[in-house]
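Onboarding guide, step 5: your first structure request.
Type a short instruction followed by the sequence, for example:

Predict the 3D structure of this protein.
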Amino acid sequence: MSLDRDQVRKIAHLARLEISEAESSAYAESLSRILGLIEQMNAVDTTGVEPMAHPNDAGLRLRADAVSEADQRERFQAVAPATEAGLYLVPKVIE
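The system replies with structure tokens like these:
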């Protein structure tokens, strides 16, 4: 797929970008090359190829979901300027 300068200017307008005439020519060429590469990738037959999450087929190393620290909420809230019902109270910042 090839883009011309008018199409690039229209795309720039939709994206609220200001580009000059010289830039529109350069962008048209670059975007056309990118779209050409996408067309080449879409042309490849991937029937039977399973998607993978990692190129080396590595698994995630997971740890046990266990408590590793003691609950210190009471201690932390004792030094807080303002708390209520176990929550920290902060000043209103949005009107």
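Each response can be followed by summary notes, for example: The chain has a mean pLDDT of 90.
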